[in-house]
Write a structure and sequence with these properties.
The chain is of the alpha/beta class and about 325 residues long. It has a single domain, classed as 3-Layer(aba) Sandwich (Rossmann fold), CATH 3.40.50.300. The chain is built from eleven helices and twelve strands. It has an eight-stranded mixed beta sheet with strand order 5-6-4-7-3-8-9-12, sandwiched between helices. It has a two-stranded antiparallel sheet with strand order 1-2. The protein has a two-stranded antiparallel ribbon with strand order 10-11.
Length: about 325
Amino acid sequence: MKLFGKDNQESGNKVGTPEKKNPSKQHPELKIISGNQISQSPSPSQKEVKPEPETTLLPNVNHAIAISSGKGGVGKSTVAANLSLAMAGKGFKVGLMDADVYGPSIPTMMGVKQQPKITKERKLIPIDQHGISLMSIGFMVEDEQAMIWRGPMLHSAMRQFLGDVIWGDLDYLFIDMPPGTGDVQLSLSQITSLRGTVVVTTPQEVALSDVKRSISMCNRMETPLLGIVENMSYYIDDSGKKIEIFGNGGGEKISQKLGTNLLGQIPIDPQICQCGDLGTPIVIGYPDSPQSLVFQKIADGLVNQIDQLDPQDELVIE
């Protein structure tokens, strides 16, 4: 079987120039290309009444948590990867779903190059890496292939990445969202019940303006805000002096204003970037480093925040 330009070795098909076929037959595990299917699935943004989330899509997942940001370039995927691994290091069963279809970073950050296997029932088996279960559209497309998808396609893809992936029993499923507020965020709020959202930002004022938009969408989607993570908060030079390149206090200011937790402040450090590029996030590569300890603190804060939420207070869209 050929998945978005890559050969699936499990299928036994020979490599060659593919003939023109119905895309829905070429990619049955992601049935999102057929024009008929698109016409039958109106864009979620066109629906005024939000449907009840399909909680059965993740029957064995205790907490589905979105990792969001109001804009790109704030290190959201880095936070998602390292936070997932920090949670797994505490003994939790963890999954990480890369919903950033336009720029999937998780395959690179987690050092995954292979495609997921497919069962006879046409279900996708997550890839196990560094002790957590992974799924990303990046596993199924060439690195240079652009994903030009409209709302209905994204809606179908998100539903299938939840319902057609064998996630198994998980304590936490972290969902690395695309930056901004758009179709993916809206679709996820409609098809599953999120336990909450963690918003990633940087300290400067321009980033905080975007955070407010992201939090506003959380409110509209009735998804609890679990806390703020401030990335690139400061840099420690060779003398040990803390240099606040992007200013200071932004994450704390907005956390206080919104009455939510500032889960942690992550320093700028080349080692974090290098580890991500090598496919071994810093929490795995240097677990005792000061940077890793910050991610551990964020994980502890998130666990405490969720424990404080009474189950009956969990908001479900109706």
